[in-house]
Amino acid sequence: MSYYTPHYFQSPVSMTRMTSTERGRLTVEGNGKITVSPDKAIIQIGIVTESKDAESAQSQNALISNNVISSLNKISISSDDINTISYTIQPVYEFTDGASILTGYRVQHILEITVNDLEKLGSVFEAAVAAGANIAENIRFDVSTREILYQKALQQAMKNATEKAIKLGEQIGVLINNIPVKVTEISGTLSPRQLSMAFSTESISQGAPPIQSNKIEIEAKVSAVFQYLRGQSQRGCPYQIIYPK
Length: 245
Known about the structure:
The chain contains four helices and nine strands. The chain is an alpha+beta fold. A five-stranded antiparallel β-sheet has the order 3-4-2-5-8. Strands 1, 6, 7 and 9 form a four-stranded antiparallel β-sheet that branches. A hairpin with a 2-residue loop joins strand 3 and strand 4.
């Protein structure tokens, strides 16, 4: 729970003359949304190797994985932007005449790569595959100034809540103090575009895949409680008010 008094509130209605029997409370929700273009992508690329024994499968996978990372470094992808998110070793069986026979082991190593320059996205796929990567899973677009943009969306949400409260006050014929007595921040959302992907070495060798990014929506929501005073609003609409005990 957080409390927030935005800078754009000015000249609040004075409540100094209110008594406990004259005041009531109104709760409203406010929403804010910022729509922006992404400036980075997070992709998942992996290496799968198989061999008759687990040690050999791991050695092959380690060699290819190091080659992939080295190739990405050469096109200015920092090692800090390359992280292992999954590493698995699984037995491989063949089923013959109702019996399962162990034939080897499969090692899968998934790397998550942050690409801070979207123009390099195609080059990242090409370099990874040329170095031995043979699977791709997901790509997600994001924005590097997420927190700053969320704060802007939060301000929009607070302004929206205040405007709602004032309009409702006009409708029911009460005076709203536009300084809220309580503000609760409701969890905001970031809606990056996530795509599932798959490729083969043959398809990548013919050129980088065309990847189009969409807009990202950053949303914020607040719940605000405002005090109101019995009387008439500017529209002069009388209303019978029941005050909380």
